Amino acid sequence: MNNIFNINRFGKLIKQQYQLSGKNLVLALSSIFIVYTAILLLFTFNNSSIETLEWLPFFIILNTVIALPFAAYAFPAFRTKEKTFDYLLLPCSVAEKFTLNIIIRILAPWIVLPTIFYISSHLASELAQWHNPALKIESFSLSTILGQINHDDLRIAIPSIILSALIHQSVLFAGATVFKKQPLIKTLVAIGIVASVIIFYFYIIIEWADIYQNGKMPWFAIIENKESAIHCLLGLEIVLLTTTWAYAFFKVKEKEIA
Prior knowledge:
With 258 residues, the protein is an all-alpha fold. It has helices spanning 7-45, 56-72, 81-88, 94-107, 109-131, 142-147, 151-178, 183-208, 226-257; strands at 49-50, 136-137. It has a two-stranded parallel ribbon with strand order 1-2. Helix 2 runs parallel beside helix 7 and helix 7 (151-178) packs across helix 8. It is globular, with a radius of gyration of 23 Å. The two termini are 23 Å apart.
């Protein structure tokens, strides 16, 4: 087990990576905070009244625009042969290197970015109201927004939204293990090609094969109720996420073996 994953060795890997890119990380987070605050200041100064729910589009768009490309540039050492060689020689297992990248590139953004957004939105609200006390601005509160949604819908939507976000990140994350140069663009092109093939396939079986004639239905279209549809969707998302992570892991393993 120690050869696969050792917590002490993993801790040293985290320390080593922080020493290499700690300054860049602080600079990046500072830049994100400044951009968030500038955009939200424009939003608050141009509106005399803002309700809590109106912050949500900014929350989703800003965080997604950063989180997805960030995942696409995982394993930055793979961009050049020299850095790849140095990275593979680190005295850590593939599982440890892979886990660190999963944490940093996929999971951490959904903790760090919402936190930055929360601080930036409250700062923007305070500055706008300080400049013009007549403004009626409700501060951003994710718990308040979620509280306005039906609990049954929330129970269904949250797992699906989380899994969907992780899948999108993970596909781009896997692309970073395949493409050395411009992994984001090349992965998006590859996804577009695959999506086109799938759409064309379903177009053929629906339009040309006439599978709906005489009341016939394909197996994937026969869903008994809403609950079954939700379970099928969640199951499919879990399979896709697991498959994507497994593919990325073995691509990293392949580089070490090669």
